[in-house]
User: Fold Ribosomal RNA small subunit methyltransferase G from Andreprevotia lacus DSM 23236.
Amino acid sequence: MTVAAVAPLAQTLAAGLTAFGLTLSDAQQQSLLAYVELLAKWNKTYSLTAIREPERMVPHHLLDSLAPLQHFKAGDNARILDVGSGFGTPGIPLAIARPDWQLVLLDSNHKKTTFLRQAIVDLKLANVTVVTERVEAYRPEAPFNVITSRAFSDLAEFVKLTRHLLADDGEWAALKGVYPHEEIALLPADLKVTGVDTLNVPGIDAERHLVHVVRG
Assistant:
């Protein structure tokens, strides 16, 4: 993209970060915009996302992924699993914002993980691993502090498929649209919802929530 094309995207990103109270370096912000440029380029051939305009990708993919960042119950050097990562949200924006976290982006779609592998090379993300596998078959060397997803499945199915991957003191942090009253009600009795954060994402006129679930 030309400098003239990038400037308004940079302004939208910076305004969103300010709204979240997030401080990212110029290099991190440039890396986020490079991710949007790469996604827009690949999307022309591989149809990774229905959103094709970079100016819409910034709020819908970057800011929507970064909105829950400060609500995650994850300390320094945490292990984070992004289930059904697709084209890398929220995993890649989170990895750029928190280089100390180790992220695994898991998806069974080879086309999407091919893009993810190219993205982490181009963006030089040393803290990201891409895995092409079904989640129920995935057996990592160590469990995760946080397991997250963006529109992967309903809460009960999400938890069912990933129980074996969560550390004993870890949490599921599921990104949802409207408040998922029915999904919460259908969670198994041995699980506990510790909170539901309402996320306000600049540029998106829709509800967003982050649901925190732990073992009871």
In short: The radius of gyration is 17 Å.
